[in-house]
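Hi V.,

You were right to ask for the full record rather than a summary. Here it is.
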Amino acid sequence: MTIQLFSGFLLAVLVAITAWRFHSLSTSGAFGAALIGTIIFGLGGWKWAVILLTFFISSSLFSRLFPKQKSDLSEKFAKGNQRDISQVLANGGIASIFAILHYFYPSASWPWVGFIASMAAVNADTWATELGVLNPGNPRLMTNLKKVEKGTSGAISPVGTLASLGGSSLIAILAALLMPDRNPFFILGIVSVAGFLGALFDSFLGATVQAIYTCPTCKKETERHPIHRCGAETIQIRGIKWINNDLVNTGCALAGSVFGLFFLWIF
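Predicted structure:
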């Protein structure tokens, strides 16, 4: 285990430095990725590493695609394409907990299911965010189906929904291939659905409790606070002040794992 943990640390540091060099991670994000990676690679092993790397590589790739469609949306998001430590922990923190649980219960299947369902949820959410901008029309707010601007927290669209299902299914397919002895079709089904539902829960939180602000100068909704990109001070218009996008993403990851474990239990 010592050798595996050390090897996991070296791999995690290599991935973190590479991502930092390519500006996918901030300096703090690189430290966070090294920590999360060491836990998952070192305690889970190479199969767990494949799942985490698939999420990280695909999400980083999609964040750089379609810059023209995303050029007008940066004012809405609190952070840019460079993930900081809080974003890394929000997406990978729940998964790392299941890697630790796997260390204490190596023969149990539920830590693996909780891990892959959590990763499926954050992958589904990321794909929906990054590819939902390609939807030809405006999305609708999840709670009341009112049309809103692209990039609005809690909004859903046909393209974003399909992207979400694709992101969840990719993790589920890999998990089924990596663990063929654990009923691959069962894993494929419950993880695809659990990840998709986790991403929907993320949208629900974004539409209800996430703190959303408006810029009095630009007349635009935004996650940015206290200062908008234009320099004006933003004003809260809905949600709970201390619930930001990082907490919502943590809720997404947690919801995915809860749904996955629930399906494992009932079926």
